[in-house]
Amino acid sequence: MPPATRRRLNIAPYVAGGVTIFVLVAFLLYPIGTTMLNSFAPAGEAFNVLNATLENFSRFFTSSMYQQALLNTIFIGVMVTVLATAVAVPAAYFVARVQIPFKPLILSLSIIPLISPPFIGAYSWVVLFGRSGIVSQYLNQWFGIQMPPVYGYFGVILSMVLSNFTYVFLFVQGALTAVDPHLEESARVMGASRWRVLRTVVLPLAIPPMLAGAMIVLIEALGEFGAPAVLGGEMYVLSTLMYFQIHGFFNLNAASAIALVNVLITLGAILFLIRVNKKRRFVTVGSTTRRAALQTGRGIRIVANCYVWGLLALALLPQLVVVFTSFAEKWPGTLWPTQYGWGNYQYVFSRVVEPLQNSLILAAVATVACVIFGTLTGYVAERKTFFGKWALDLTIMLPFILPGIVTGVALLVTYNSGPIALTGTALIIVIGYFVRRIAYIYRSVVAAVTQIDLKMEEASTVAGATWGTTMRKVTIPLIAPGILAGAIIVFTTLISEMSTTVMLYSARWKTISIAIYERLETQEISAAAAIGSITILVTLILVLTATRVIGKSMSELFS
Amino acid sequence: MNLKSLALIATVGTLMSQTAIAQEGGLVVYNPAGDAGELIIDGFREKYPGISISAINAGVGELFTRMAAEKDNPQGDVVLCASSEAFLANPDLFEPYESPELPNFESDVVAADHSFYGCSMPLQAFIVNTNLMSEDQYPRTWADLAAPELEGKLVLANPSLSGSAYAQLAQILQLYGWDVAEKVMKNARFTTSSQSVFQDVGRGETEVGVTGEVNIKTMMDEGYPVTAIYPEDGTGLRFDASAIIAGGPNPDNAKLFLDYANSKEAHELIVSTNRRSVRKDVAPPEGLMPTSEVPTFPYDDNLAASNRDENLAKFDELFAQ
User: Fold this and answer.
1) Residues B185, B245: one domain?
2) What is the pLDDT of residue B14?
3) CB B71 within 8 A of CB A44
């Protein structure tokens, strides 16, 4: 730490800190803390010291189904995280460092796997690779190849890797784009080969954002219910058991107990990653405003194009199936639909406009809130040393780790009655979205700030700028790519957020994910696919515009 | 509580003059019944245009979790057509009410304290893919599901997933006990998505499944290569029910709505969505076997409910092996 500067009293940090603490305590710590405590209470009761029990956890010790689910969860979580990272890092490097066309389009398309309409997204893999799936049937007819069953570990891991690699891809891509080119140039000048520079300079620099992305992938993988439910066969995971407790037993306390075990696994992973991260401290973003030169060799360009587009094509398969299904007016269990047309779109049109509007408004407001508070807390957590830093880390991660329905119920119970009654309002949905997604911005800001030279901020302070001005003029522009990547992810995933929304929405604030869910409830899968396709298209256009517009103004910031 | 006193005044008012029924204000319906619920809501809206009615559509699990979380300040007025098991598991959320339609209901589909009224009958039947199986291979009884020939050809929803899924296991247990149930378990893949059961059979992923007859009928109407088999050893007569949420914001409109949901008119709307009504004076959907001809057995849902924890624990234990 630099010596404390004694100058005029600056209240900005205290105001910002106070508001942040209030928000964290009122919307995160209190509601979710009480719900977590309830996991030590019997079914249907609120926790107090007298009714404390470990009953909800006992099955982890007595039931082999629980133990097996725990092992499955850890195995899938680790596999998905490792594989998603492994496929994402080369793609990120290619997009950041090799001259390939349509970069904004690539970045925007990579977001689309995050919008997976519930059920139909995962079921797309069955439609393609199931026993009577399209691909399986043709492989069998043409080549006599019998596809292995898609059910079980293979299908679950495959579908989860392809729908989650984006987190790592975007974070690493952003960091590699922002890295000070002097580092590599110096290495080259000193005679290191390209490969050596890649191995010893470039890739190590990508590690903090890679870990930040991997952390998110891990948590998503631990909490995923849809893919294991549709593709897992009899391979159950912890979120399956949580689903049983809520839907089959109406026992939220037992579900919270399972969630708490999930939290412990994640906590272990967070501590592990923080240790790994501590050992590697690099300053990669210095005073240079120049971007690294792009590789233009023919060979590397071919490889880069093939890899990136191949990966995108695979990852977008489920979404393509959804779009295809939306044009199927009749598809009664045959290989291909028997009637195509716009009928599904005509049918859903009147049901789409308002929910889509609501989703966009709610997601946008929540994203702004996440950006403001996520940046503040992420910055403070990385730059300042204070007691209980790990507690801040955990508090922010908690609602993100927990299944959405638990967070939704926590907010519902807290703000349903009493001094602040928020049920039925748009605000409670925004709060729900905010607490579930702030971790994305927080993580990406922590990763970005790690890489910024502290001297740049000190220079600003020494020159007489206040803390607020330094943040505004120096720090934020430097971490902007990280924030932008986080914000786009937050916005996109909120558009199709389902599990918290279903607890908090009111008739006035019905969202697009609820509209999809309603069509699924009435077995109108093609109609659900039509709403899903509209959502995908609108999100794609918005993200593409955002990357272009903000991306452009960002490069102006640097020049 | 302000709302409660308002409700009291309103109730007294209603008692004093039967005609003084509120026909304005709001009403919030929790609807886990998909299109059937949507039709009833539309029908009510047409009848009482002064009441602004809105619906929260979600699954039974989500809606009951929501109601439990909102218990101190309920936001919904009525829950429509949710499985009776859910009501038995959450007895204190609902308000008893004497609906004028009561005489039209058999006593076994209405709660003893009149806190809920039967709606549709989600009978469980076998769904068979007619492309993957020839007619002589179809399972005809619950016991047939245990036949070794069905190994790997049967998909069921895990009984912990929902009331319907548990009812399937409970029926096998009440008919044959764990011996047969264990063999069925050996044959079946237990999915955790109830949609997957009939979708997988309809799309030709699996030969046989067990699901609500409405799902089979809907797929048959759309032209899927599936057929419904009612087990000859009998399916249990189960029912969905509707109720007034205790302490809801619009208690008078809630009563008005429940009366409508119980009416013959509304039950005919239910039938139009391929669901069977609990009312004896409403014919079953076209193309479905009349209720009197469906082979049934005296399924004891109280016994099923009281044994549930024990049965499911045993199931989990066997499942893990």
Assistant:
1) no
2) 47
3) no
Please tell me whether residues B44 and B113 are part of one structural domain.
Answer: yes
| Residue B222: Cβ within 10 Å count | 14
Does the interface ipTM go beyond 0.90?
no
Q: pTM of the prediction?
A: 0.87
Alpha-carbon torsion A424, A425, A427, A429, what sign?
positive
Most confident region among A59-63, A169-173, A281-285, A533-537 by mean pLDDT: A533-537
Report d(CA B116, CA B214) in Å as an integer. 22
Q: Are B226 and B130 in contact (CB under 8 A)?
A: yes
CB contact (8 A) between residue A523 and residue B189 = no
Are residues B153 and B247 located together in one domain of the fold?
Answer: no
In a shared domain, residues B214 and B300: yes
Q: Is residue B276 part of a domain?
A: no
The closest alpha carbon to A518, from A488, A301, A446, A527, belongs to A527
Q: Is A405 on the interface with B (CB under 8 A)?
A: yes
* Domains present along chain A, CATH in parentheses: 42-558 (1.10.3720.10)
Cα B102 to the center of its chain, rounded Å: 19
What is the domain count for chain B? 2
Q: Whole domain around residue B107: which residue ranges? A: 2-121+239-271
Give the residue from A525, A227, A259 showing the smallest Cα distance to B192.
A227
Is B148 among the domain residues? yes
Nearest to A126 among B62, B161, B205 (CB): B205
How many Cβ pairs closer than 8 A exist between chain A and B? 160
Average pLDDT over residues A256-273: 85
